[in-house]
Specification:
Number of helices: 15
Structural class: mainly alpha
Strand order of the largest sheet: 1-2
Largest sheet: 2 strands, antiparallel
Distance between the termini: 66 Å
Helix content: 55-70%
Order of helices and strands: HHEEHHHHHHHHHHHHH
Low-confidence stretches: 294-313
Radius of gyration: 31 Å
Mean pLDDT: 79
Length: 313
């Protein structure tokens, strides 16, 4: 009987085999997206950086003479460089101010009082994407010809002359504002969708705030990232616009670059690189301005740890 009775060690069930560790497979699956991500980012970086590097080499390397930075040293002393750059920056600042002054109150008014008019405002702001700039400048030049032909004996004739002043052509500001409307509208509309504007305005008005205070201290701080995005898109548009300014006979920065490209090829490429650097620096400034610091109006307050009462501790 003792020989037929199984011992405790033999009767005990054998432990099941442990499943294979899935960590190596997970590690391989995680490595693959990282590798592909690096490949895609590397190709995108090469797509943007290789032309810039080639352009920089073209500006500093002269066959038979070696490396020289004459294109950059002569750039600051070139005729018309400073004037055209300052003119473009002034036009960009005026365009940003006028576009925001038109679009921000319109969108806030539509969102608060007439939401049914939003499709109409959207269609009006998107029209510049359909109308080509060449058609726009043709219409502007036709209107400007009315001054000498029909308005020479009226006070409006002096207004027509003032908007065409070569030192600061305000007619370009009006044209650039029309071109920038789609970008400004999209940026601000996205910002207004992310903010409960009716509740903020109603709370401020119930506290006795006037409309100027509500717009400057309640609405605009909550739209700071959208305002910065709209300002940057408008700035990039103005600095790179060539068609309207050239056909109207003015000489901002983009037109000046094209005008010197025939006689000074290296200098024109150097100016293009410099304009990219200036645009990137202004982008950093605007992105910094679009980030609300802690404690500013409209910035979220930091979360404080809850204090426990003596009874709870």
């Amino acid at each position: 009987m003792a020989a037929m009775t199984p011992t405790a060690r033999e009767a005990a069930p054998q432990p099941a085999a442990a499943p294979a560790d899935p960590q190596p497979a997970r590690g391989r699956s995680r490595r693959r997206p990282r590798v592909w991500r690096g490949v895609v980012l590397g190709l995108g970086g090469a797509y943007f950086l290789v032309p810039l590097i080639a352009s920089f080499v073209f500006t500093v390397h002269t066959p038979g003479r070696g490396v020289s930075f004459e294109a950059y040293t002569e750039l600051l002393a070139a005729d018309g460089f400073t004037e055209s750059l300052l003119l473009s920056l002034g036009l960009a600042a005026a365009t940003i101010a006028l576009a925001l002054l038109l679009v921000v109150p319109a969108l806030v008014a539509v969102r608060l009082g007439a939401p049914r008019l939003r499709p109409v405002v959207e269609v009006v702001c998107m029209l510049p994407l359909v109308v080509p700039p060449i058609a726009l400048v043709t219409g502007i030049s036709t209107v400007l010809r009315w001054g000498p032909d029909h308005l020479s004996r009226t006070p409006l004739y002096q207004t027509f002359l003032a908007v065409q002043n070569e030192s600061f052509p305000f007619v370009l500001v009006l044209a650039y504002t029309v071109l920038a409307l789609p970008f400004v509208y999209r940026s601000l509309d996205a910002g207004l969708r992310a903010v409960d504007v009716p509740t903020l305005v109603e709370a401020a008005r119930n506290c006795g705030a006037g409309w100027p205070y509500v717009m400057l201290r309640v609405v605009l701080p909550n739209l700071r990232p959208s305002l910065a995005g709209a300002a940057f898109l408008t700035l990039a548009l103005v600095l790179g616009e060539f068609t309207i300014a050239s056909l109207l006979g003015f000489r901002p920065f983009a037109v000046w670059i094209v005008s010197i490209s025939g006689a000074h090829a290296r200098m024109s490429v150097a100016v293009s690189l410099l304009s990219l650097v200036v645009t990137w620096l202004l982008l950093l400034v605007l992105s910094r301005a679009g980030t609300a610091p802690t404690g500013a109006p409209g910035a979220p307050s930091p979360a404080h740890p809850s204090r426990t009462s003596p009874k709870e501790s």
